[in-house]
Inverse folding.
């Protein structure tokens, strides 16, 4: 399971968005957990299907939307994020 966390704490925001990738035999699911930092998350399904390329594509599309809104990557699988130029090369929901 892969988890990538983004946060938006600019301009009075205090929100997070986590991407969780779950791989089962022949199945790929990308979930979005989101809400205010420190509160219980809401959950949505971003992709659920059998195509790994489609799963990664939907992940990147949703991540780009969040980054346009001011979210930044703060952790990748529980580890602190690398600088943005390095992080973009290593972020994959499923390898």
């Amino acid at each position: 399971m892969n988890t990538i966390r983004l946060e938006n704490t600019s301009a009075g925001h205090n929100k997070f968005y986590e991407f969780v990738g779950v791989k089962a035999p022949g199945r790929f699911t990308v979930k979005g957990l989101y809400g205010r930092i420190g509160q219980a998350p809401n959950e949505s399904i971003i992709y659920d299907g059998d195509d790994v390329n489609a799963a990664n594509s939907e992940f990147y599309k949703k991540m780009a939307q969040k980054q346009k809104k001011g979210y930044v990557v703060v952790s990748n699988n529980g580890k602190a994020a690398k600088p943005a130029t390095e992080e973009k090369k290593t972020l994959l929901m499923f390898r």
